[in-house]
Amino acid sequence: MRHLKLLLRTVLSLAMSALFIWLSLRHTDLRAVGRAMADADAVRVAAYVVMLLAIHLIRTVRWGLLLKPLGEVSFKRLNSASAVG
């Protein structure tokens, strides 16, 4: 029964994801999006990704410092919680 519930939740989640992706992209010219992505400057995209990773790391460390008076929290747990937000 437990496996059936997990399967049902997984299928329902995937179906909802597919529906919302379709709703968000139904009036979008995907070829134009592809062309724009191909024309993007790789250096700027890489710099943006590096900045996002740095921001995420800083937020994770900040949460660790804020929570330190309440107890020690592992970096893995802090990272997981920061990724959700």
How would you describe the overall organization of this protein?
With 85 residues, the protein is mainly alpha-helical. Helix content is 82%, strand content 0%. It is built from four helices and no strands. α3 (42-67) crosses α4.
Shape: flat
Number of helices: 4
Q: Output the structural class.
A: mainly alpha
* Portion in beta strands: under 5%
Over all CA atoms, what is the radius of gyration?
A: 20 Å
Calculate the terminal CA-CA distance, rounded to whole Å. 32 Å
Please provide the count of β strands: 0
- What average pLDDT do the residues reach? 95
Structural domain count: 2
Poorly predicted regions are: none
Assembly state here? single chain
How do the helices and strands follow one another from N- to C-terminus? Answer: HHHH
Q: Please bin the fraction of helical residues.
A: over 70%
| Largest sheet entry | none
List keywords for this structure.
85 residues, mainly alpha, 0% strand, flat
What is the element layout, followed by pairings?
Elements lengths: L1 H24 L4 H10 L2 H26 L7 H10 L1
Helix pairs in contact: 3-4
Short structural description:
This protein is mainly alpha-helical and 85 residues long. It has 4 helices and no strands.
